Amino acid sequence: MKQPFFSIIIPTRGRPKYLRDAIVSALKQDFEDLEVVVSDNYNDGQTKVVFDEFKEDRRLRCVRTDRLLNMPEHWEFATQHACGQYVLILTDRSVLKQGALKTIHDGISSFNSSVEVCSWRWSLYDDTAGSEYGVGSMFKDKDTINFPSRRLAEEFANGLGGYVYCLPRGLNSCYKSTLMQRIRDEFGTPFKPISPDYYSAFVIMGTAQEVLYIDKPLVVFQGNADSNGGRGMTGIDTGYLKDLGEYDIHTHVPIKSPLLKNTVFEDFFVAREVIGGNLKGVECDWSAYFETCYCELLIKKDAGILSSDVMDELFGEWKRALSTFDQPTQKATKERVEILIESFIFPLHLKCIQKNTIKSSYLIRVKSWIKKLISAPREEKWRSVLKIAGFY
């Protein structure tokens, strides 16, 4: 049997509507050389209901865990069933845009198949307004760039910034199966706690010399209120952290709080220690680290989900950690934070998780639809995520 070019892996949590959208966006691509593997994480049968709708398509198959796995374990289980040359993880909240696979294939092929990993931008779907945002680009002169992996690691260590789009996370990248086999043979699973998407990105950047980046959104994410990352940014996702078991999430970071950005830096430091390679010697700009974590604290405060006592503890731990650094770092951090506070705007894609939004979500949805109907041009009225992605 011929090896497909792409293996699209969909690790699902049994969310029928999201899963169906993800499958449709994969099977209806204008690129045929693929397989789609849905990984059912021991749910109550909802996956089968959706899968049966498409079971006649020979490109689609389903695998199932024998117990409930946490996210890193499930990604490892699911990707082990890939048969393609390149593996792409499409979570069940993700929708491929029409033409995405052809764009990725053409980009890889233009480099004579020497590309081991490719990443791309993404956009977000606002299901209250039926619209898409985050569709801009970073580089105006060209839309396909071959980045040295070390450069991307250094950009990350200097503060996440816009280069987060370039990182080959599992959510916005594909990797060559032979690359991942080398990584598994030498270092074990590439999907480790805390964040398997970021940790795998760091592992890949430590191993592969270059990352091909496509500067256009090829996938759109929906259901932001159901996102582990969204919940972690606005509150503390204790359920996800509990699922990880006995794992110390603060071994390598100075702030001993469960901040989402803090855990990403923890993953980076762990990967740098385990992998070395292109990550060896990449030092962190600590003032950028503290600024990034402070920004998250502002988001949590404005979200209004955590109590004032909890917020006081989080800000107090941030201050304590900063006080252990030298005076130049403290001074640079305070200057960054002053500018951050003056310019801070609550992120649009997290509005659906704010406490006041949750309480009045129905009213907001109705108002949004009315506003769309009155003010938007006919072709811009409320659209489904699949329509925005170029289907139907």
Report on this structure.
The protein is an alpha/beta fold. The protein is 45% helix and 15% strand. Strands 1, 2, 3, 4, 5, 6, 7, 8, 9 and 10 form a 10-stranded mixed beta sheet that branches. Helix 11 (286-303) runs parallel beside helix 13 (327-343). It starts with 5 loop residues before the first strand and ends with a helix.
Q: Low-confidence segments, ≥5 residues, pLDDT <50?
A: none
User: Shape from CA axes?
Assistant: globular
How much of the sequence lies in strands comes to 15-25%
Can you count the helices?
16
Give the terminus-to-terminus CA distance: 32 Å
Tell how many strands the DSSP assignment holds.
10
Mean pLDDT: 91
Helix content: 40-55%
The biggest sheet amounts to:
10 strands, mixed
Task: Please describe the topology of this protein.
Layout: E1 6-12, H1 16-27, E2 34-40, H2 46-53, E3 60-64, H3 71-79, E4 86-89, E5 94-96, H4 100-109, E6 117-126, E7 131-133, E8 144-148, H5 149-157, E9 173-176, H6 177-187, H7 196-207, E10 210-221, H8 228-234, H9 238-243, H10 260-275, H11 286-303, H12 308-323, H13 327-343, H14 355-359, H15 361-375, H16 385-388
Parallel strand pairs: 1-2, 1-4, 2-3, 6-10
Antiparallel strand pairs: 4-9, 5-10, 6-7, 6-9, 8-10
Helix pairs in contact: 1-2, 5-7, 7-10, 10-11, 11-12, 11-13
